[in-house]
């Protein structure tokens, strides 16, 4: 049911931070760095990859499918529903139809978005006018690529995109990933 997102099938950079201690919890959330999406989301990601290439960039993916078990770990580390979906209600990551990512330039360097990934502050929200012109432009480019590829943005996180009508997809556990993440 889930599609593995990895080169060479997908021309992206992977930096799956929840498989490392370099995330808001301070400990690995996943036991292995596996990137998965629902096939509908994988198809839209292919469109986004093509559009990013057209502006001389690549996509760097930080997170995609997040099993329900992982959502609980994140919730226990940072239980602010503005940034981490309450696992009792479900996350669109847990449906396999949300992705966290950024743009990187031709040299593989991430574009300056004004904050890092998972900076759970108001500076991470879309539409900020207190960022530099370059940071605003970079966020606008990512937004343009993703929206043109059929994704919706989440207003509180510049890095988070999801499929429209994400709620119609079921919530999944690690069993949907063959037990590969947890």
Summarize the structure in words.
The chain has helices spanning 39-54, 68-77, 133-148, and strands at 3-4, 13-14, 36-37, 58-63, 98-104, 152-154, 157-162. It is built from three helices and seven strands, in the order βββαβαβαββ. Helix 1 (39-54) crosses helix 3. The radius of gyration is 15 Å and the shape is globular. The model has no long low-confidence stretch (mean pLDDT 97). It has one domain: Muramoyl-pentapeptide Carboxypeptidase, domain 2 (2-Layer Sandwich). The two termini are 17 Å apart. It is α+β, with helices and mostly antiparallel strands and 182 residues long. Helix content is 23%, strand content 15%. A five-stranded mixed β-sheet has the order 2-4-5-7-6. A two-stranded antiparallel sheet has the order 1-3. This is D-alanyl-D-alanine dipeptidase. The record marks 66 as: Transition state stabilizer. Belongs to the peptidase M15D family. The active site is at 157 (proton donor/acceptor).
